[in-house]
UniProtKB/TrEMBL annotation:
It comes from Devosia geojensis. Residues 55-151 form the Methyltransferase type domain. It holds the Pfam family Methyltransf_11. Gene3D superfamilies: Vaccinia Virus protein VP39. PANTHER family: TRANS-ACONITATE 2-METHYLTRANSFERASE, TRANS-ACONITATE 2-METHYLTRANSFERASE-RELATED. This is Methyltransferase type 11 domain-containing protein. SUPFAM superfamilies: S-adenosyl-L-methionine-dependent methyltransferases. InterPro entries: Methyltransf_11, SAM-dependent_MTases_sf. GO terms for molecular function: S-adenosylmethionine-dependent methyltransferase activity. It comes from the Bacteria.
Length: 260
C-alpha cells in the first residue's frame, strides 16, 4: 500500500486564513485541550532540559512555548502563518524565537543550522503538514545525533476526519466508535472558520504505519508512545456510557523517536 496521500501535488499551507478564529480558540498559551491533555503528554515524552534548544514545528501562535521556557530550554517556533507568528512574537516578546518558514523545507531557512536542536516537537501540527516525508526529513536535519522528536497528534486509528464518529448501540446501551476508512491516506478539507474563501484548511489522514515508516526512513527510531484519553475534559454529570467511551477510546497519540 502506498503511504502517500492522494493529491500529491498539493502541499500544506498556512493557517493564516483561519488565524483570527484559531487565536480566539487557542490563544498564544493554548486551549483547554492543549493545557489539560496535549502539552502534558508532549512534555512527558520530550522532557526538555535546562540549557537545551527545542524547535516547535508548525508552532501556530506558540501554544508550546511557555512549557519549554519554564523548563529552562531555549524555544524556536516555526510556522508558515505570518499572522500567527506575529501574534506569538507580540505575546512572548524576546523570550522566545518565532520564525516564518516551511516545515517541509527547514534547510532552506537561513536562520537555522543543521544538527543544532536537542529536541523537536510537532504539537497538533503534523496532520496539517504535507508531504509528511519532507517534514520528517527536515526535522531530522535540524536535530543533533541522539536528539528527541515527538509527534503529538489526534489518534490516527480512531479520529479520522469525516471517516469516523460516535454511534449508539441501543441493545448493549453503549457508545461505540465507528471507523469507516483507515488504511488509505486522505487529504480532507476542514470546516471553513476563517475569512470567506480563505479559511479552509486541509487535514492529512495517514495510517500509523505511514508515520513509523517515514520516521525510520529518516533515521528516527520510535522508542516511546502514549495514547491519551479525553477523560480529563469530561463535563460533570456526563452519562456513564459516554464517559466510558471517552476513557477507552484515545483522543491523542504521542510518538517519540530518537535520531540515530
Ligand atoms: C492545528 S495548527 C497547530 C498550531 C500549534 N502547534 C498549536 O498547537 O496551537 C497547525 C499549524 O500547522 C501550520 N502549517 C501547516 N503547514 C505548514 C508548513 N508546511 N510549514 C509550517 N507550518 C505549517 C499551520 O499554519 C498551523 O499553524
Amino acid at each position: 500500500m502506498s503511504v502517500h496521500t492522494k493529491n500529491r501535488n498539493r502541499t500544506s499551507r498556512s493557517w493564516d486564513g483561519v488565524a483570527d478564529w484559531y487565536i480566539g480558540w487557542s490563544g498564544a498559551e493554548g486551549s483547554r485541550h492543549h493545557k489539560r491533555l496535549a502539552i502534558p503528554a508532549l512534555m512527558e515524552l520530550l522532557q526538555p532540559r535546562r540549557g537545551e534548544a527545542v524547535i516547535d514545528i508548525g508552532c501556530g501562535a506558540g501554544a508550546f512555548a511557555s512549557a519549554v521556557l519554564e523548563a529552562g530550554a531555549a524555544y524556536t517556533g516555526v510556522d508558515l502563518g505570518q499572522k500567527l507568528i506575529a501574534h506569538a512574537r507580540h505575546h512572548y516578546g524576546g523570550k522566545a524565537r518565532f520564525l516564518v518558514g516551511d516545515a517541509t523545507r527547514l534547510p532552506a531557512m537561513p536562520q537555522l543550522r543543521p544538527a543544532s536542536f536537542d529536541a523537536a516537537a510537532f504539537l497538533l501540527s503534523i496532520q496539517d503538514i504535507d508531504p509528511l516525508e519532507d517534514a520528517l526529513a527536515s526535522a531530522a536535519w535540524a536535530l543533533k545525533p541522539g536528539g528527541r522528536l515527538v509527534l503529538l497528534m489526534t489518534h490516527p486509528c480512531f479520529r479520522i476526519p469525516r471517516q469516523s464518529g460516535w454511534g449508539w448501540d441501543e441493545g448493549r446501551r453503549l457508545q461505540f466508535r465507528r471507523v469507516d476508512r483507515y488504511l488509505t491516506p486522505l487529504a480532507v478539507p476542514m470546516q471553513d472558520y476563517g475569512e470567506a474563501g480563505r479559511g479552509t484548511t486541509r487535514s492529512y489522514h495517514r495510517p500509523l504505519e505511514a508515520y513509523v515508516s517515514a520516521l525510520a526512513a529518516n533515521g528516527l527510531a520510535v522508542d516511546a508512545l502514549r495514547e491519551v484519553s479525553g477523560e480529563d475534559l469530561a463535563p460533570r454529570n456526563e452519562p456513564k456510557a459516554m464517559r466510558l467511551a471517552r476513557e477507552e477510546i484515545p483522543l491523542f497519540l504521542a510518538l517519540r523517536a530518537i535520531k540515530s
